[in-house]
Design brief:
- Belongs to the Nth/MutY family.
- The protein is mainly alpha-helical.
- Helices cover 51% and strands 2% of the residues.
- The chain has 2 domains: 100 residues, Endonuclease Iii, domain 2, CATH 1.10.1670; 101 residues, Endonuclease III, domain 1 (Orthogonal Bundle).
- The protein has 11 helices and 2 strands, in the order αααααααααααββ.
- A two-stranded antiparallel sheet has the order 1-2.
């Protein structure tokens, strides 16, 4: 298997450095032009591809342009408007309810604190971190999505399993000025090379320091299970 660097901090810094070389343009892939659109797009992206979200929001953002628009929406019509999105019925309710909270408690503006954001329906810490980072340029943590979860474990950076525990474990070892970008670098690499089911380790710029590298290791540290033969 690949040989990780002596400490988690050294391993993480090397991973970040190499991935910046590989993906110099890594950034958020959701389309938005203001904080409300960002909030809506991130809420819709849960268990759904960014590509599909971007396609759906082209028309959605023309029809609903303010928190009031979502608050006053007919939830069944809103559900139809996001019909291609995974769990669109639940997410329509989240959008309407969150719109009402934003209007009633925040003068129609998306809030700018972790506490207030996570009080919105359908918004957890991961979503709130994205809003703060890309809407307000406030970096309080690391967004842990499925790519970050998978790659951080595969690369031996963490052994934690839950997103909240992974974030807490990453904060001391990821350089603070990279907290925002660590997510996008791992997402880029997770989509291009280190996929969930069949990673292309032969083309991976991290293979020599990856303890999960196929051909060298029998086990995928992301799942703890043996690689498929």
């Amino acid at each position: 298997m690949g040989t990780p660097l002596p400490s988690r901090a050294e391993q993480t810094e090397e991973v970040v450095e190499r991935l910046w070389e590989e993906y110099p343009d890594a950034t958020i892939s959701l389309n938005f032009s203001n904080r409300l659109e960002l909030l809506v797009a991130v809420m819709l992206s849960a268990q759904c591809t960014d590509e599909r979200v971007n396609k759906e929001t082209e028309d959605l953002f023309e029809k609903y342009q303010s928190a009031e628009d979502y608050a006053e929406a007919d939830v069944e019509e809103l559900s139809e408007d996001i019909g291609s999105i995974t769990y669109h019925n639940s997410k329509a309710d989240y959008l309407k309810t969150s719109g009402q909270i934003i209007v009633d408690e925040h003068d129609g503006e998306v809030p700018d604190t972790m506490e207030e954001l996570t009080e919105l329906k359908g918004v957890g810490r991961k979503t709130a971190n994205v809003i703060l980072q890309h809407g307000y340029d406030l970096v309080e943590g690391i967004v842990v999505d499925t790519h970050v979860q998978r790659l951080s474990r595969r690369l031996g950076i963490t052994e934690e399993e839950r997103p909240e525990a992974i974030e807490e474990d990453l904060l001391p070892v990821v350089p603070e000025d990279e907290w925002k970008w660590y997510t996008h670098l791992l997402i880029s690499h997770g989509r291009a090379v280190c996929t969930a089911r069949n990673p292309d380790c032969s083309e991976c710029v991290l293979a020599d320091i990856c303890p999960s590298a196929k051909g060298d290791s029998d086990v995928d540290l992301a799942s703890g299970e043996a690689w498929d033969a």
